[in-house]
């Protein structure tokens, strides 16, 4: 993803970019993961279990983003999610629309997030709601 993104910005490497896009697409199909190569993700991105992951390239994701399988992050009517730093996301989670997930949050498995979440929160459910909020940065579940 990062290599394809880099090559897309270099006009003198267009042929290499073409091959990178083809290889990137092949890997997307092989692993069942669709992450737009222009996605703005900071360092520390971790996929614990692959498969069924779709992340739109217009989303903004902070550092240390940790995800499980069957995740969807997408835009609705041009409005995209913004996800803070140190966020842990469980399996089968949907995050869509103009939502802001704060720093140091945990999103439980099976949650559907359609509203913004403050920093240092634990959220679960469909629609997602806060079950725990702490003042420090260490969330203990």
Describe the structure.
The chain is of the alpha/beta class and 141 residues long. The protein has helices at residues 2-8, 14-31; strands at 33-35, 40-41, 46-47, 53-55, 60-61, 65-67, 72-74, 82-83, 87-89, 94-96, 100-101, 106-107, 112-113, 121-124, 129-133. Strands 3-6-9-12-14-15 form a six-stranded mixed beta sheet, with no helix packed on it. The protein has a five-stranded parallel beta sheet with strand order 1-4-7-10-13. Helix 1 packs antiparallel against helix 2 (14-31). It is elongated, with a radius of gyration of 16 Å.
In a nutshell, what does this entry contain?
By secondary structure, the chain is of the alpha/beta class.
Largest sheet: number of strands, sense, barrel closure: 6 strands, mixed
Beta content: 25-35%
Counting DSSP E segments of at least 2 residues, the number of strands comes to: 15
Number of helices: 2
Q: How would you describe the shape? A: elongated
Mean pLDDT score:
89
Order of helices and strands: HHEEEEEEEEEEEEEEE
Helix content: 10-25%
């Amino acid at each position: 993803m990062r290599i394809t993104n880099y090559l897309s910005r270099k006009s003198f490497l267009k042929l290499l970019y073409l091959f990178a896009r083809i290889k990137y697409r092949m890997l997307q199909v092989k692993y069942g993961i669709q992450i737009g190569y222009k996605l703005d993700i900071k360092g520390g991105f971790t996929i614990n279990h692959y498969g069924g992951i779709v992340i739109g390239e217009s989303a903004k994701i902070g550092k240390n983003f940790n995800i499980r399988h069957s995740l969807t992050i997408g835009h609705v009517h041009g409005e995209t999610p913004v996800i803070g730093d140190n966020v842990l996301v469980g399996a089968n989670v949907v995050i869509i629309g103009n939502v802001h997930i704060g720093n140091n949050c945990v999103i439980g498995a099976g949650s559907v997030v359609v509203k913004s979440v403050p920093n240092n929160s634990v959220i679960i459910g469909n629609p997602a709601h806060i079950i725990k909020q702490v003042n420090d940065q260490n969330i203990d579940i």
